[in-house]
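Practice set, problem 2.
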Amino acid sequence: ENSGGPHTLKYGSTVGHVLGLTVVLEDGEVVELGGVCGSTRGYDLVGAFVGSEGTLGIVTQAIVRLVPIPEKIATLLAVFDSLPAACRAVSDMIAEGVNASAIEALDQLTIRAVEASVFAAGYPQDAAAVVLVELDGHPADVDHDQELVRRICQRHHCLSFEEADDPKRRKELWRGRKGAFGAMGRIAPDLYVMDCVVPRSKLEEAIVGIADICKKLDLKLANVFHAGEGNLHPNISYDGRDEQEVQRVLLAAEGIVGVCIDLGGSLSGEHGVGVEKMEFMPLVFDQEALDLFQEYRDAWGPQGLLNPGKILPTPRACTETKGNFSLPEGAEA
């Protein structure tokens, strides 16, 4: 899937850290791609495999890049009275050149779920949103960016600003963020996690649009996302035993994808297409591009034995793609 995680902002996604691969093709042939040096002549076949979602071959070994432990780490927590205000602060951090390793955002429903769970991190439960910023590198650079982040958050009227210098406190703050998805089980028995990406200057518009869709469909929406990259994870909590609610969730997912694409974003920020977003591929790629993807896939495995029915839409899926969001009959606009 070429996933990234919180620290993708500075360190990049998986593809930037894989130097070489040993892969098994569908006919059983074992192929070595790349190597310790990380560069080979010709096409970037390692890059093609990272993110191919298992459709080109089976990876059995990987050579990965190591990065040095930073000299200094600072973890900051800014508290806001609205999620749009938090998004505006994040956009300004990027615009003003803050070299953060991670910028994460959580909304109120997520905060309350986290604080009621074993992942409690001491986030203020009356906050509409919190932004978790991590800086690392040379001490002088960290100190400079720390002050810049403080000024930006204050400009956007943050309610409080915490600088966690103690390793134990930093670990607590990150435990809350990383445990957020697990904590969602306190809201409802099932969870639909979206993964779309938008330009960081469009964060506020995306958040407002997504919230509007879920409100109209009477769904519980919680947001926890990699704000620094514009990689959104709208979480819809629901009861899978309620067929009508399940249909509303799926309708909301289509609307969320549409909002992100309309804002110049894409289908996936890090977790891939799989079968979930396969039918939406024609919203981003024309038929010529989809045919090229298929030809490339066939070149590696002409029988299509590896992860069949993933990523690329079938003709049936293409005809069923709506490409627009509409409310169900009787829903209030």
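Problem 2, part (b): a different protein.
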Amino acid sequence: MTADTSLELFARCRDGDEAAAEEVFGRYLERLTRLARSRLSNRLRARIDPEDVVLSAYRSFFIRARDGRFDLSDGGDLWRLLAAITLHKLRRQAARHSAEKRAVGREVPFDAELIDPAMRADDAAVEESAALADELEAFLRELPEFDRRVIELRLQGATTSEIARDTGRSERTVRRALAAMRGRLESRLERDGGGRGIAVAEADRPRESAAREMRSGRVSSRRSSPRSTAEDPRMSLRFEDYTLRRMIGAGGMGKVYEARQHSRDRLVAVKFLRKEFLGHPRAVDRFVHEAGIVADLNHPHIIGVHGIGGTPGGGRFIAMDLIAGPDLSRFLGGVPAAIADAIEWTRQLANALVHAHAAGIVHCDLKPANLLRDASGRIVVTDFGLAQSAVADPESRLLAGGTPAYMAPEQIEPACGPIGPHTDIHGAGAVLFALLTGRPPYDGKRPADVFAQILAAHHAPSPSAIREGIPSELETICRRCLAPRIADRYETASELCDALVALN
């Protein structure tokens, strides 16, 4: 790679060239992921996904590059810049996950969850808490390191003098930074139609008052009424019935919070559709579609959905069972599972697929990150956002999305066949492969590279080529699930389940 090539790519990214952005993504993705993984301890590796960190770093890079925030003079600067952003993201996540070691009376871990657990959902601040969290996340991503540190310390209740000592700046500089950021944030919220002003902290405000306000995420409203939304008959849950406690997960479409449902006196998981998708009817419909699909499925290995509701501010949320445990991707941290565990977890997955397929539902996005593990070792399938009907007319069915490394050929190229239960059989085989080897069956720097491997494969990949000691019968099961031709796979999830049971 020459310096000119690197600088040209950066310049094209800055100009919004999507092809250049894809090239930068593919060129450095693997190196950045290895870098992030190498900096994680074994303890944090089970809680932090290096790929999530890298994807977050890329989002920040592309946004800031288009805004003209970077100026590179040497080709090597592009790698150094991406590496610096990635390590900064990694440090922030590591600090957040280690927050319990800090002084309880002073620490409020910042991960966009500025919500007081004692506040009820009918408080004006909590009604828009998810939208506010998105705004704060985006705002902080764009700040220089000094400004971001000032805000983080203020959120933790630090005084102006304490922030000055921590950052090595004068109190006057800190006060000016707080005032400037308050104005920028208020302008941003007004520009985005929120009309909200956030009290970052005036210099003369008593510390206790400012810290209490920031810890609760309280906002002052310049408009007394929330933005109006049309009544949706699908919204059966009342937002006032829930108190948000903490954020427990986030994805491309939404964020998930632990919450208390007061009418049932129980803890649940509440998934919010991200604010930026609320104006897109197709995104809202897909979100509601997911809730409707899973609500009809009642099985111990499938996440239970209680219903869907809307917030007074126009948001959408799904209430689900709260599973007290990580997904398999985080639980394993890139390390292969024990053979017995891989067999048992895949058997439980197959058992869930038997039920879903009998109800006419194909998941279409099976992967370790979508399989939760509770304290008893039970596996629960979640995230049916890409699910499709198994009996729909192929001509009317959407071309399924998914996670590239776990997708079946028919999800990429319709000529390979229709999407159906056999698609989930392939997905189950991909999960089994990942459990046995610590990596997906297909790998590449770019989605296009992965797709090319999947479509060009004449034979299923072999997990024993990566890990020794895999029983031949288990290898046969895995490769049959992953067969490129639909006719060569197991016909049903029940047949797969029986094959796994026979190994014991």
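Answer key, part (b): The radius of gyration is 24 Å. The CA atoms of residues 57 and 85 lie 6 Å apart.
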